[in-house]
């Protein structure tokens, strides 16, 4: 077990904390820890004691901007959503005691299945119509989430739906202004278009805000069955079509420029739906009016560019030393190109 420094975790303290909160754990085996693939955001670990397994999530090491990487909020969200949407993991415990870990963390159930990340899993490659089945499963999981009655299930305090889209547009405009670098293109025309085309949709649903393929887990051997949806940190309530837009952003196609995204849906010949197929099937199943899809798709590309721009800015000013951030400007430029394509009705 390692002692805690500014970039390490004292796992012995974590094990003691877990054993104090969960009974009937094996006393004969020490806890083992495995770090999952590290992205740009929160850190995720599998912890195991005997046959018991769970997932621990915490913010990154180092400086964190105010309100960023709010693990308590994510914990409280899945605490409310899991009972009505079991694809969200069951939360076990939340801790903000800095004597145990330098930053707050929470522990939730570990689901066992297949996550589709940078490559198509071998287990799915030989299954007939796997691309279509995956596409259908993602669409259905999104619609099921959006069909949950927010008021009936006491979820109305997850966010402020009134003016949700307006806040998204103006909020990301401010974030771009605060993180501007000398290689960022002029966004005035794009931002003016977004402001002038904000739809008047009044429907309110749960908005995951990061609903993408590698935030889901599939049943082993069944590409048509999703058993888990993860990363609820950004979730709120608001316009359901914002999630549709961001899902379509991540649903890459052959011929897209390199946007720095991890996605396999652009793999030719596997049978994934195109963005248009995805959109049409979504509208067919749920019956929503998707005539404003170009706005939501444009906003999705713009927001994702903004997320990467904030990371790139922090690297540019020397706040973070992670060399992965040094080439983010390329992905940002391509995302903004795609936003222009969507704005001009040239993508779907």
TrEMBL record:
Q: Name the SUPFAM superfamilies for this protein.
A: Protein kinase-like (PK-like)
Q: What's a single GO MF annotation on this record? A: kinase activity
This protein's source sits in the domain of life called: Bacteria
Q: Which UniProt keywords apply?
A: Kinase, Transferase
Xref: InterPro entries = ACAD10-like, ACAD10_11_N, Aminoglycoside_PTrfase, Kinase-like_dom_sf
Q: Does the keyword NADP apply?
A: no
Q: Name one Pfam family in it.
A: APH
Question: What positions does the domain Aminoglycoside phosphotransferase occupy?
Answer: 33-260
Instruction: Name it.
Output: Predicted kinase, aminoglycoside phosphotransferase (APT) family
Q: What is the lineage of its organism?
A: Bacteria, Bacillati, Bacillota, Bacilli, Bacillales
